[in-house]
Design brief:
Layout (H helix, E strand, L loop, with lengths): L3 E7 L6 H14 L3 E6 L15 H12 L5 E4 L1 H5 L5 H10 L4 E7 L20 E6 L15 E5 L7 H9 L10 H10 L8
Length: 197
C-alpha cells in the first residue's frame, strides 16, 4: 500500500498547541501514516518583514514538541537543503525519495495566497491540498482551482506565533499555549526576549 504522508510546513517560531492540533487532526481524519512538520530554512515570505529565529532553534522546538508522538515527525529536509524554502522543491524531493501520496496541509487562511508561492503551478500535480478549517468556517478549497483537495476539521483554538512572540518579549507566560518541552527550548536558547514580533 502506498504510504500516505502529510506535509505541514512552517516557520514554527514558535510551534504551539494549535499547530499540533492541526497535525493530529490531519493524521487522524486523512488516515495518514505520518505527518512531517517541515521546518523552513529561510521562510522567504517572512524574512522580509520580521526577524526570524535561526533554523536550528526552530527545529529544536519542533523536535521537542513531537517527541514521543506517534506519527508526527520533525523534518529538517529544508534546513539541510539550505537557502530559501520553497514547497515545490520539498515536494519534488519527497517524491524522489520514494512512491507516496502527499497531502499538503495548510490553514484555510492560506488558500487564497497559494498563487503567491514560488512555482505554485507545479504543486497540484505533486500533492493533494488538505485544508484545515476552524469551527464555523466553510470550505474555500474551490478557490484553489486545479487542486485535488480534502477538508480537515479543527477544534476551536485561536493562537498565532506572532502573538506568542509578543507575549514572550513582554515577559508574559506561554504556559499551556506551547508544550512544556518547547518552553524549555525557548528558555534554554533565550528566544524572544525583547524581540520584535
Amino acid at each position: 500500500m502506498t504510504p500516505r504522508i502529510g506535509l505541514f510546513g512552517g516557520t514554527f517560531d514558535p510551534i504551539h498547541v494549535a499547530h499540533l492540533a492541526v497535525a493530529v487532526a490531519a493524521r487522524h481524519q486523512l488516515g495518514l501514516d505520518r505527518v512531517l512538520l517541515m521546518v523552513a530554512n529561510v521562510p522567504w515570505q517572512k524574512v522580509q518583514s520580521r526577524e526570524v529565529s535561526n533554523p536550528a532553534a526552530r527545529l529544536a522546538m519542533v523536535q521537542a514538541a513531537v517527541e514521543g508522538r506517534i506519527g508526527l515527525e520533525a523534518s529538517d529536509l529544508e534546513i539541510r537543503r539550505g537557502g530559501d524554502s520553497y514547497t515545490a522543491d520539498t515536494l519534488g524531493q519527497l517524491h524522489r525519495q520514494g512512491d507516496c501520496d502527499i497531502f499538503l496541509i495548510v490553514g484555510s487562511d492560506l488558500v487564497g495566497e497559494l498563487t503567491t508561492w514560488k512555482r505554485w503551478a507545479e504543486l497540484p500535480a505533486l500533492c493533494t491540498l488538505a485544508v484545515a478549517y476552524r469551527p464555523g468556517e466553510t470550505s474555500t478549497a474551490e478557490a484553489a482551482l486545479g487542486w485535488s483537495s480534502v477538508d480537515i476539521r479543527l477544534p476551536a483554538l485561536e493562537l498565532s506565533s506572532s502573538e506568542l512572540r509578543r507575549m514572550a518579549a513582554d515577559g508574559r507566560p506561554l504556559d499551556f499555549l506551547v508544550p512544556d518541552p518547547v518552553l524549555a527550548v525557548i528558555a534554554e536558547r533565550g528566544l524572544y526576549r525583547g524581540a520584535t514580533p
